[in-house]
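#structure-requests
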Amino acid sequence: MRDTKHLEKFAKEREQKEKEVKLFKSKKKAVEAGANGTLEYTIKEGANKDKIADRKILKKSS
């Protein structure tokens, strides 16, 4: 009896978590590329100061 209670409780909790995850996934919206200046970000400090962050600069630093 005790084992089935734990299994049933676990199954209910897991089902609830799956529902929550499903709801949160459907609420997410796509991000607009370039919104709020994210596409052409200017580096403010360091060796590449005042340069626009592009793939060449970002690959060198990583």
